[in-house]
Amino acid sequence: MPSTLTLFNLCCNSIMGTVVHKLPSFKFLNPTSSSSHYCSTTTTTTTTTRTSKTFRAGSRRRSFSISASASAVREDNPALGSLSLGHITRPDFPILHQEVNGSRLVYLDNAATSQKPTAVLNALQNYYEAYNSNVHRGIHYLSARATDEYELARKKVAAFINASDSGEIVFTKNATEAINLVAYSWGMSNLKPEDEVILTIAEHHSAIVPWQLVAQKTGAILKFASLNQDEAPDVDKLRQLFSRKTKIVVVHHVSNTLASVLPIEEIVLWAHDVGAKVLVDACQSVPHMVVNVQSLNVDFLVASSHKMCGPTGVGFLYGKSELLSAMPPFLGGGEMISDVFLDHSTYAEPPSRFEAGTPAIGEAIGLGAAIDYLSRLGMQKIHDYEIELAKYLYESLLSVPNIHVYGPAPSENVDRAALCSFNVENIHPTDIATFLDQQHGVAIRSGHHCAQPLHRHLGVNASARASLHFYNTKEDVDDFIQALNDTVNFFNSFK
Fold first, then answer.
1. According to the model, what pLDDT value does residue 24 have?
2. Which backbone phi and psi does 390 adopt, to 5 degrees?
3. 3-state SS assignment for residue 378
4. Which end of the chain has the smaller Cβ count within 10 Å, N or C?
5. What is the rounded distance in angstroms from the CA atom of residue 333 to the CA atom of residue 350?
6. What average pLDDT does range 270-289 have in this prediction?
7. Alpha-carbon separation of residue 194 from 9, 246, 278, 279 (angstroms)
8. CA–CA separation, 171 and 342 (whole Å)
């Protein structure tokens, strides 16, 4: 018996030609020059209607061109007052203004990676065109300028999360490397047999696997808190796991699958009461809300640039100064040393101690530009807008027949992040994602989202996930829901 996706492929090949197997076609919408598109202070809205493809139930796909740069947003600008943050900021993201497979691109895979504004693209180009050079080593003009901009980016990260000093920020290639740094440097130095590492079953693989490896080497024990009846990590059970054997608590701030938010301040208090440290995976929170490491009082926190409108290939670790200073190097090589002799070496102070070799200079500078951009918008404004979008997405999905949306329902006391993982009865999530992309130009994620233990607990192998950022709009959600209903109807037609 052929699978549903096989039937879909055969049907598409016979009726629509090579829809499934063709390369995506890209066509930019509303092409304008850089200067007119990003600097104009006028505001226009364009509505475009196209004939739907075979199997498409109909189209309400709209194309928006708001000629106003988000960097020029002002509270007292009457021309922009009635527009959402999504409409205002979309012109700053060139990639969003294109057609994919004949439809306006609707990008809903922001939990995997975010798009980059022109300001970030310009910062990268400017680095490579104007002052490309290695940092910290040269005395010539290009090296000095590159060093200044690289260290300025570190200061921007520190200010963005309210670290007490830029020396508490270590640049890494991503959040995964940052967690591994803590696991191998702090963990290998501080964990011994029978010590306990506390996590939840909703953690990303990057927060589980490094500690499994360190536990195998040290004899430490990993303990996991499960979910409550609302499909959120059970905070009460988490607290019950704490004991004097607990040495570190490794938890997410926002779940990349359940959209739930953990009470980090309370968890830190409980952990510190038993003498444990806390490492927070903030990949899904730093880009979407105000994060203040001093008020949270976390010991370590990690995030990735590419999820916060910055370049790929760079992330950061925040660590309290006294902890970083006591940790041994993670990687050896240039830059992280003080003196090298044939029989031994001495090491630089943090953060240089943990940044062996030539770093991702341009990418760090691009991250600094992304932080400038986000700061101009205001993280509280971004968070407020996304909470509104999150509720709209969740409630809209509930209108789809036979759907299950994972995680807690939004309420007066519960705010969901702007993402929804879901399954539709008897339709594989990869089939859904494939049809949405090839028939509607809607980009979502399907799979286990690097959270296999969580999916096993939920009783499924995979789920589909739609995730939003501040440049998304309610119209994006409407187009997604219409496309999803069309997708469900298509696959149900084979039953």
1. 43
2. -60, -45
3. coil
4. N
5. 15
6. 98
7. 53, 9, 18, 20
8. 28
* Neighbouring C-alpha atoms within 13 Å toward the C-beta of 50: 14
Name residue 111's amino acid.
Answer: A
CA angle at 355 for the pair 352 and 358, rounded to the nearest 5°: 115
Residue 66 clears pLDDT 60, i.e. is over it: no
CA of residue 90 relative to chain centroid, distance: 18
Phi, psi of 316 (to 5 degrees): -150, 155
Phi, psi of 403 (to 5 degrees): -105, 145
| Catalytic sites, residue numbers | 450
Query: Dihedral sign, CA of 320, 302, 422, 429?
Result: negative
> Which amino acid appears at position 258 of this protein?
L
CA–CA gap between residue 181 and residue 159 (Å, rounded)? 22
Classify 148 in phi/psi space as left (phi over 0), alpha (psi -120 to 50) or beta: alpha
Task: Name residue, tokens 């997410």.
Answer: 252
Dihedral over Cα of 344, 348, 352, 357: its sign: negative
**pLDDT top residue among 435 and 23:** 435
Tell me, what amino acid is at 268? V
Read off the pLDDT band of 130 (50, 70, 90).
very high
Which DSSP helix (H) or strand (E) runs through 363?
helix 361-377
Question: Helices 474-492 and 429-440 meet at what angle, rounded to 10?
Answer: 110
Candidates 159, 234, 247; CA nearest to 196 is 247
Q: What is the mean pLDDT of the chain?
A: 88
- Residue where the block lists tokens 């929804």: 420
Q: What percent of the chain has pLDDT over 90?
A: 79
Banded pLDDT at 71 (limits 50, 70, 90): very low
**Which residues have CB under 8 Å from 312's CB, separation 6+?**
113, 174, 305, 306, 363
Provide the whole-model pTM.
0.87
Q: Give me the residue label for tokens 């007066």.
A: 412
Q: Which residue, chain included where needed, has tokens 């921007």? A: 156
Distance CA 185, CA 239 (A): 26
What is the pLDDT averaged over residues 52-57? 40
Q: What is residue 303's DSSP assignment?
A: E
Residue 277: C-alpha distances to residues 214, 244, 253, 452 (Å): 16, 12, 15, 26
Q: How far apart are CA 81 and CA 1, in angstroms?
A: 56
Burial of 120 (0-12, 13-18, 19+ CB in 10 A): buried
